[in-house]
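Any chance you'd type out a single protein's sequence alongside its tokenized fold?
>
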Amino acid sequence: MIFVVSAGLLFITESWWMSLGILMLLLLADAYIQMYQRKREHDKNNDEQ
């Protein structure tokens, strides 16, 4: 999936550096969303106990 997104960004922007920057921002956003979801699940499990 990352390969497809990378290739698409490279094709659209025609700049390797800009594609790399956008991909890094997407990966960072994905990591923060995962951390947020895990925290919510953890808090929800603690509230039930």
Observations:
- Residues 16-48 form the longest helix (33 residues).
- The chain has a mean pLDDT of 90.
- The two ends are 38 Å apart (CA to CA).
